[in-house]
Design brief:
Helices cover 33% and strands 22% of the residues. The strands form two sheets. It has a five-stranded parallel beta sheet, sandwiched between helices. Strands 4-5 form a two-stranded antiparallel ribbon. It contains four helices and seven strands. It starts with a strand and ends with a helix. The protein has a single domain, classed as Rossmann fold, CATH 3.40.50. Helix 1 crosses helix 4 (136-149). With 152 residues, the protein is an alpha/beta fold.
Amino acid sequence: MQPIRILFSSISGNTRGFLQKLATYATEQQATNPTAPLIEAVEISDLTNFADETSPFFVCVPTYLSGGNGIDSGVKELMTNTLGEYITYNNNAHLVQGIIGSGNRNFNEQYILTARCYAHATQTEVVADYELRGTTQDVERIYSILSLLSQP
């Protein structure tokens, strides 16, 4: 089985940490079930050379916002611009299977707003979300969701 490919951006390290936990969990699952998919997490940053993706992938994106209150206008997403540009590079957006969002529920309407914006831009859905660095239950839940969605 092909690994579940996830492109992500991580500014504070929370998203990177979550995906490391998700990859470790996938490896543990495969140890007891050889058909369980592994996780291939690829960080996209300002240093990334853009390329044409050749297989379906998920996107995991944190929420970084400036201005506004999440209800009215004035909200500006920032910090994940390179990831967004990579996804829209050539035909990459057509291979997006879904968006995973992270954020802080204290921000109310702004919670996972970046993920919702990416879903709209790629005409996909937010398939999962978690808060901050995520919990063990989040890892298990999101792995289960991605495993189901990535089946042929």
